[in-house]
Amino acid sequence: MTLNIVIIGLSVTSSWGNGHATTYRALIEALTNRGHEVTFLERDVRWYRDNRDLIKPSGWNVELYHSLQDLPRRFTPHVRDANLVIVGSYVPDGVAIAEWVTAHAEGITAFYDIDTPVTLAGLDQGLEYLSAAMIPRFDLYLSFSGGPVPDMIEDSYGSPMARVLYCSADPNLYRPHRAEKQWELGYLGTYSGDRQPSVERLLLAPAKAIPDRRFVVGGSKYPTHLIWPDNLERIDHLPQHAHAPFYSRQRFTLNVTRADMRALGFSPSVRLFEAAACGTPVISDRWPGIETIFEPTTEILLVSDAREVIQILRDLSEERRLAIADRARRRILAEHTPDHRARQLEAYYLEAAGRRQRKLSCSAASRGAIQVAEM
């Protein structure tokens, strides 16, 4: 089976302030390796243009467009002829684009929600990239959140088929590097107001309590007024190729979760997978469903406050630290690589196509029965 796939997403060319890029890159590379043809459509905006870090794609295409009006003029044939068209979350003018895609695509259409908790929390208030009325028009809703969430999307919003499609970590890019441990604990993530209190509680407070050890925070968009401890290093932006060396220089790395994700649960971030794939043990805040991704205490360390973080940093043996890191990496390789996600997407496509064919067959049979009855 070879599919012609069109993806309209936030950005694949730049990972600056954008966790979507590495998720899309990993999935697309895996799909291409499995023989599928993929074209990614991305709006050309200044902040991504000025910070592009995508190495030239091999075997797939990126097309930049400049406005909403540019899309139908240039890409209607692409959308019409594709076997599968995916519209991603946070795409500018996403509602209008979704209407255009579902009106013109002859293949299967899908909405890939890399921000499911944020989407579900904001649908009633109105979002630029998705409306509740659009959800039933997609053949498939690919949810960043698992557990009970896909069923909820079907029951509450009328999706004909909602399935979980977590992000992943490419083991060719995210792998352990031989490096001297430079930081006791680090964090990589774009600034978010609802995530910052957890960063301050679980990283800045331990840094202040252990002034003889070094800490690090990497990521863009942090306000200039924030005050950092003297033993904490700030790195404004790390392009994707720098992620694995960055994780490998940490004894532990921190995962903190946005409020909507923590409340909904079952919503692992891409950084969680990537850090574990690099062989760095992860200290994480607690949220429902995390145990379905990693086994607590043996594959991941869960904490609620600074005291628990400090205890891990001071007391956990090196033998156990390395064992936790090794088990988490093994879990990634066994369940959470891009190839796993590509295979899942193929299965979902076949399921959605089968549902559509059965629906068409039932409609044809009903029309035939009506015609016979009228004779």
Characterization of this structure:
By secondary structure, this protein is an alpha/beta fold. The protein has two domains: 4-168 and 337-363, Rossmann fold; 183-335, Rossmann fold (3-Layer(aba) Sandwich), CATH 3.40.50. The protein has helices at residues 20-33, 46-49, 70-81, 94-104, 116-122, 149-157, 196-209, 243-248, 259-264, 270-277, 306-315, 318-335, 338-374; strands at residues 4-8, 37-43, 61-65, 84-88, 108-113, 140-143, 162-164, 183-188, 215-218, 232-235, 250-255, 282-285, 301-303. The strands form two sheets. It has a seven-stranded parallel β-sheet, sandwiched between helices. Helix 1 packs across helix 13. It is elongated.
Brief overview:
The strands form two sheets. A seven-stranded parallel beta sheet has the order 3-2-1-4-5-6-7, sandwiched between helices. Strands 10-9-8-11-12-13 form a six-stranded parallel beta sheet, sandwiched between helices. Helix 6 links the parallel strand 6 and strand 7.
